[in-house]
TrEMBL record:
The keyword Membrane applies. Belongs to the peroxisomal membrane protein PXMP2/4 family. Its main location: membrane. One of its GO terms (cellular component) is mitochondrion. It is found in: Membrane. It holds the Pfam family Mpv17_PMP22. GO terms for biological process: mitochondrial ribosome assembly. It is a multi-pass membrane protein. Keywords: Membrane, Transmembrane, Transmembrane helix. The chain crosses the membrane at residues 60-81. This is Mpv17-like protein.
Length: 106
């Protein structure tokens, strides 16, 4: 239980922050913290439910030989969620890149 609490209180905010700030830096945003400010709490609220649930399922129900595959799948779904939030935010700004912008124009 202490490991889960430490994960949620320390590592989850660091990971979420690294994702949003890193994406903004790679996109060369003027204010790299803008996206983080808008989406951090929403993402964190989902994470404090999503990750402990995944850990309980993984360590309580999944056989040892399948835990890595289960955890990888669980992480994959999380990345899809974070990418979707980021995409929604970019759509609201009207800053889609390349192909998406070309498709919408036609």
């Amino acid at each position: 239980m202490r490991k889960v609490a430490c994960d949620q209180l320390v590592m989850t905010p660091v990971g979420i922050s690294a994702y949003y700030i890193g994406m903004s830096a790679m996109e060369r945003k003027q204010d790299i913290l803008a996206v983080w400010r808008e989406t951090f709490w929403k993402t964190y609220q989902v994470a404090v439910i999503y990750w402990p649930l995944g850990q309980m399922i993984n360590y309580g129900l999944v056989p040892v030989s399948f835990r890595m595959a289960f955890f990888g799948s669980w992480c994959f779904v999380w990345v899809i969620f974070m990418s979707n939030l980021r995409h929604q935010q970019r759509e609201a700004e009207g800053t889609e890149f390349g192909l998406l912008r070309a498709i919408k124009k036609s």
